[in-house]
Amino acid sequence: MSARQIIIALVVLWLATAYLALPRIWRRREKVAAAVAPPTTDKLPRHSETANGIPGDPINLLFVGTGDQLVGAMLAAGWHPADPITLKSSLEIAAGTVFHRSYDDAPVSPLMLWGKKQDLTFEFPFGEDPSERHHIRFWLAPEQDASGRTLWAAGATFDRSVGLSHTTGQITHHIAPGTDAERDNVLEDLRRAGMVAELHWLDGFQHERTGKNGGGDPYFTDGRLAIVVVGAPASPVKAAAPDSK
Q1: Are the C-beta atoms of 175 and 217 separated by less than 8 Å?
Q2: Burial call 171-204: b when 16+ CB within 10 Å, e when fewer
Q3: Residues of 56-70 as b/e, b for ≥16 C-beta within 10 angstroms?
Q4: Which pLDDT value is given to residue 144?
Q5: DSSP 8-state secondary structure symbol assigned to residue 245
Q6: Which residues are CB-contacts of 122 (< 8 A; sequence separation ≥ 6)?
Q7: Is residue 34 a part of any domain in this protein?
Q8: Residues 6, 157: contact at Cβ < 8 Å?
Q9: How far is CA 52 from CA 6, 23, 41, 45, 107, in A?
Q10: What is the pLDDT of residues 143-156, one digit of tens each?
Q11: Which of 130, 223, 229, 244 has its CA 20 to 30 A from that of 171?
Q12: Which residues, 6 or more positions from 206, have their beta carbon under 8 angstroms from its beta carbon?
C-alpha cells in the first residue's frame, strides 16, 4: 500500500472507532450500570449525560426564574449565547482554534438531562481563541418549585483545551478539573451585574466528590449546589441555607 492509502485507511479506522464502535460500547455499558443502580427519590440529576449515555459534567447550579429573566441576567453579566451547531459554526470554531481567532459565540456541544439536550447555553471568552472559554448549559426542569416558579438546572465548567475524547476518541473540549471555581465564577458575574435576588446553598448535593465527564476528563467538587433566584435583589444579597423539606 502507498503512504496515501495507509493514511486514508487510518482515518477511516479512527472515524469508525470513535464515532460508531466506542459510542455503542459506552451506551451498552451505561444501560447495564443503570439497571443495577439503587433507586433514588431525588428529582434533580447529579450530572448530565452525553447522547451515548456516558455521564457528563456535574450539575452545580439551580436557577429560579423565567426564561426571559435568566437570559436577561446572563446578558447583563456579559455572557454570550452560544451559536447553534451548524456546518458553518463548526468550521468557524475549528478555524478559530487552529489559527487562534476569537469566536465569542462559538457553539457548545450538547449534553442531555431529563432525556433532552440543554435549552440554553452561554459562554464567556477567555484567551485568544475558542479552545479556552467559560461556559454553562441550562436545562428547563420538568417541574416547578413549591411556589410554582420555573426551575433551571445548570452545569458550569471551564474549557481548557481542544483534543480527543478519552472515552470515544472524538474531537471535543477538555474541561478544567475544578468545577467549583467555574460555579463560583458564574455567581460572581451575576452578583456583580445585580442579577441575584437570593442565593442559597445545598450542601452534600453531589454524593461523589470526584468523577470523570463524558470526555473522560477528571473533575472534583465540594459537593455543594448553588440555588439562585434570578432578579435584582431588594436588599444586599446574603448566602443563606435552603429551607429543609
Answers
A1: yes
A2: bbbbbbbebbebbeebbebbbebebbbbbbeeee
A3: bbbbbbbbbbeeebb
A4: 87
A5: -
A6: 74, 79, 80, 81, 82, 135, 136, 138
A7: no
A8: no
A9: 30, 6, 24, 17, 19
A10: 888 888 999 999 99
A11: 223
A12: 46, 58, 60, 221, 223, 224, 225
Q: Is 172 among the domain residues?
A: yes
- Whether 7 is covered by a domain: the verdict is no
Q: How many domains does the chain have?
A: 1
Could you list the residue range(s) of the whole structural domain that residue 68 is in? 40-240
The pLDDT-based confidence of 85 (bands split at 50, 70, 90) is low
State what percent of residues in the chain have pLDDT above 70: 62
Q: How many CB atoms lie within 10 A of CB 164?
A: 15
Would 6 be classed as within a structural domain? Answer: no
What cell does 175 get? 474541561
Identity (one letter) of the amino acid at 221? T
121-to-26, 80, 137, 138 alpha-carbon distances in Å:
25, 8, 5, 6
Contact 168, 19 (CB under 8 A): yes
Q: Tell me how far apart the alpha carbons of residues 97 and 94 are, in angstroms, rounded to a whole number.
A: 5
Cell 447495564 sits on residue:
32
Residue by residue, DSSP assigns 177-207 as: SBHHHHHHHHHHHHHHTT-EEEEEEETT--S
